[in-house]
Amino acid sequence: MGSMGDDDMPYTDVLLVGAGFASFTLLNRLRKMGLDVKIFEKGAASGGIWYWNCYPGARVDSDTPIYQLFDKELWEDFTFRERYAGWQELRRYFKHIEKKWNVDEHTEFNKHVDGAVFDEKKHQWVVECSDGTYIACRWFIPCIGFAARRYTPPVPGLSEFKGDTYHTAVWPQHGVNLRGKRVAQIGTGASGIQVIQEIGPVVKNLTVYQRTPNYCLPMNQRPLDPKEEEQKKANGDYEKAFNDTRKTFSGFTYDFVEKNTFDDSPEDREKFYHKLLVEQGGFHYWLNTYKDMLFDQKANDEAYKFWRNSVVKRVKNPEKQKLLAPEVPPHPWGTKRPSLEQRIYEVFDQDNIEIIDVNENPIEAVEATGLRTKKGLVEVDALVLATGFDSVTGSLAQLAIKSTNGGTIADHWKDRLQTSMGIAIPGYPNMFFLYGPQAPTAFSNGPSCTQFQAEFVEEAIKRARAEDITRFEATKEAEDDWCKRMNEKWDITLFPLAKSWYSGANIPGKRVEPLNWAGGMVEYTTSLHGSLDNNFQGWHTDKLKA
Ligand code: N01
């Protein structure tokens, strides 16, 4: 960073990295305060994850109306067409925001931030981009989400494959025609399930290499009637839904019920499960269920049993039944992210689909024409890697953002993941990050989490400016306290019993620890705002000396 501190360096009050929900809501809030705000986005268009997620079937798993910014200016003249929006519609929505809020005026696309260093004399960040340019800013706010670093497992011989290889996280923007092809796919997470459901019916054959079955839930997708949605808006239903998200554990409109699993008789429990799983669909079976489901193994076993029965009824092939819904659950129900499906079990059951359990039959090698296990070589034309991300921490840790104490964020996290309230890090003054580690992030509806964090950032900057504070930094004590609370919340749940990307266990060699705040949205936002109201408790605040 040779040119740090140059007087002719471009300057902006706020630099937001990434052009998704988080940066758009911040842009609108902060420029209303008279601040000069810029967005740098490495992709060619806005949408954040919805720019990259364009694989067949990519679709969100939060329902309308809460998967959007809760701003009347935006929702009054945009109506989603389905209960769960697909990637094309989400891109249409981002275009709507761009137009309505003149986002382009503030945004540079194809602009990749590499790193940053803090100038102690000026209380500014100097940010370096991969095109060799620099910009200075008072506030530096990465909004790059939890899935900005894709993961490809070290399968031997991957580069030997002569067919086409596609990773779901960087699917070609122009699309891929897999009709009539022989396809192999590794991975059955949220992305993998959606791809299988979409391509299964059109490919010649599909071999799925599964490590862990996904406990999928019926999406109960349906088209939305525009007139009915307008009526809901007029009745105040949208505003009510947005307000409800503030009161729940995960920023959805519903929450765990105030009952334990065995408070109900077996008959009532069956009825209740049926209502959640079959009638309501979506995440109701996960987040609107008995309050002990994610804490008590026996309660969890009941939930698994009911879910398993529902799957077994849909899969006729007995071998596939065992692979998709084993009698003994490999991990407690709901401790890995369940995917929402529309017809996945019928598709899995098709004769042109084979499931290979890689625990029994590890992939020995990828060869020029296909994948080899001890069962032999499966020849394919294309290979889909639906193998996910170095989730939650990988996004920020890959950037060369220097601490004022020396080292990078990756160095700061060498011995343990540590942040203050999942929004700031000691040694990183005037920097906040949204939808990242140690926040409700992956346990929440994305727009809820980002907007509630944005409200905090807006308020913190407002108060800092009102008091001429130019250096605003989390304290070490606040960070230690948050880490302690992170572990306390996590340890009492069943989540530690799953090998999941929620805890880093999906990446060989990555330390296993809680990556997301498991204490719920309400306690989270109360902690954030409490720190400001309590005379900046947990923050060092300084002014520039004249
Ligand atoms: O990634 P994943 P994803 N050999 O990590 C498997 C959000 N999202 O891209 O479960 C064989 O979930 C791995 O196996 P295992 C959403 O929050 C949302 O699907 O670790 N298999 C797993 O099956 C989501 O949860 C939407 O044992 C290997 C898969 O690869 C998150 O992003 C859509 C392997 C990876 O699944 C991530 O989803 C898409 C190996 N060596 C994404 N290594 C919606 O809104 C890994 N796997 C719906």
Describe this structure in words.
- The structure is a single chain.
- By secondary structure, the protein is α/β, with parallel strands linked by helices.
- The chain folds into two domains: 11-149 and 391-539, 3-Layer(bba) Sandwich (FAD/NAD(P)-binding domain); 190-227 and 245-385, no CATH class.
- The protein contains 17 helices and 19 strands.
- The protein has helices at residues 21-32, 49-52, 72-75, 87-101, 190-199, 226-235, 237-245, 266-280, 284-287, 297-312, 318-324, 344-348, 394-397, 409-412, 446-466, 476-491, 521-533; strands spanning 11-17, 37-40, 107-108, 113-119, 124-129, 134-142, 164-167, 182-186, 205-210, 217-218, 340-341, 353-357, 365-366, 370-373, 376-379, 382-385, 400-401, 471-474, 539-542.
- A seven-stranded mixed sheet has the order 3-2-1-6-5-4-17, covered by helices on one side.
- Strand 14 and strand 15 form a beta hairpin.
- The longest helix has 21 residues, at 446-466.
- 47% of the residues are buried.
- It binds 3-acetylpyridine adenine dinucleotide.
- 3-acetylpyridine adenine dinucleotide is lined by residues 53, 59-61, 147, 153, 168, 186-192, 209, 211-212, 337, 358, 386-389, 442, 501, 506.
- InterPro entries: FAD-binding_Monooxygenases (IPR050775), FAD/NAD-bd_sf (IPR036188), FAD/NAD-binding_dom (IPR023753).
- It holds the Pfam family Pyr_redox_2.
- Keywords: FAD, Flavoprotein, Monooxygenase, NADP, Oxidoreductase.
- This is FAD/NAD(P)-binding domain-containing protein.
- Residues 13-234 form the FAD/NAD(P)-binding domain.
